[in-house]
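Title: Comparing notes on inverse folding

I've been comparing how different people in this forum approach sequence design from structure. To keep things fair, I'm posting one structure and asking everyone to reply with a full sequence. Here's the target:
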């Protein structure tokens, strides 16, 4: 068996060390160098360790130490190359993905309120100016609050299932926001001035002027000494504030179960100023809301004294006001979620 002396081993160690230093200057990949020097089968340092068994026994400890020192140098050199390669890759990535924070961002266009929300807010603002508070109530209502307490008896046509969404014999989707008036009167004592905005439901087939779900605002004022003159003055002030001071207002006798006397309230057509056009059907007037003085029978359901108190109530559809204000000819446009329509407001 051929034996290696320390001198021959030192020459190989020095040759491998110089070759490794030369390879590290050539920008070879750390993995390639690892395979060349530390590969399990043919790595130069690995082969050198295998040749250690051919070194004389007396020289093996020193030879083994020298080879291990070389191995540690190679491993440290490979670790340094891997760190440098990772840092270089990171620098390239940061450069390619660099963001200029001084550039303006890609901002989404700001949203805005729905046209029905705009109209509702304007109506609430007008009545708030007159001292009215805004009240709310449940959309699933009992028959008592939706009908009976409003002087609508059990067999009244308004309670027919063809017009009302019943959930059970005693529960339904409210057909108006008047139940909020009853609930508020049960909790508060006069004087009382409230408006009750919200969504209501009726069995209407969808068309240009009807929807099974729509929005109403109903109002109520109760105090001692309120008269029909107060009722007329309040609604005239509201309608002129919403449309224009040139708007004319008229009251036509009508019937509602919970008001007596009752009236339909019209305004002069805002498009033709009363001359007659397609919108007002050549009449010069447009019907806007129903109203009247509170029937004394309603007060008895909330323990109000009808001998001392008087009140008036009114109800209007937000969609009708929005259609006139924005010249919209189809109520369905408000609910189709078509951005081409909504972005106009």
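Reply #1:
Here's my take.
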């Amino acid at each position: 068996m051929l034996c290696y002396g320390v001198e021959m081993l030192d020459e190989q160690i020095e040759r491998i060390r110089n070759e490794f230093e030369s390879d590290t200057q050539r920008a070879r990949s750390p993995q390639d160098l690892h395979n060349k020097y530390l590969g399990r089968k043919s790595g130069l340092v690995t082969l050198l360790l295998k040749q250690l068994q051919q070194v004389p026994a007396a020289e093996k400890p020193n030879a083994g130490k020298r080879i291990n020192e070389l191995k540690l140098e190679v491993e440290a050199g490979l670790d340094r190359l891997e760190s440098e390669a990772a840092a270089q890759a990171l620098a390239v990535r940061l450069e390619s993905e660099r963001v200029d924070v001084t550039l303006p961002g890609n901002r989404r266009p700001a949203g805005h309120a729905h046209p029905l929300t705009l109209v509702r807010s304007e109506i609430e603002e007008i009545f708030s100016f007159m001292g009215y508070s805004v009240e709310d109530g449940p959309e699933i209502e009992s028959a008592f609050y939706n009908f009976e307490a409003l002087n609508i008896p059990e067999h009244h046509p308004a309670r027919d299932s063809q017009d009302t969404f019943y959930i059970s014999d005693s529960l339904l989707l409210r057909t108006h926001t008047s139940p909020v008036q009853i609930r508020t009167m049960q909790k508060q004592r006069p004087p009382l001035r409230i408006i009750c905005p919200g969504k209501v439901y009726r069995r209407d087939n969808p068309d240009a002027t009807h929807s099974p779900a729509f929005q109403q605002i109903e109002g109520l004022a109760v105090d001692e000494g309120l008269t029909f003159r107060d009722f007329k003055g309040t609604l005239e002030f509201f309608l002129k504030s919403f449309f224009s001071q040139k708007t004319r207002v008229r009251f036509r006798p009508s019937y509602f179960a919970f008001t007596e006397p009752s009236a339909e309230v019209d305004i002069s057509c805002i498009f033709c100023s009363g001359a007659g056009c397609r919108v007002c059907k050549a009449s010069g007037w447009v019907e806007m809301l129903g109203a009247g003085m509170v029937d004394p029978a309603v007060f008895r359901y909330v323990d109000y004294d009808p001998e001392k108190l008087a009140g008036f109530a009114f109800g209007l559809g937000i969609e009708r006001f929005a259609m006139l204000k924005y010249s919209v000819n189809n109520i369905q446009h408000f609910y189709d979620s078509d951005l081409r329509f909504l972005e106009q407001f």
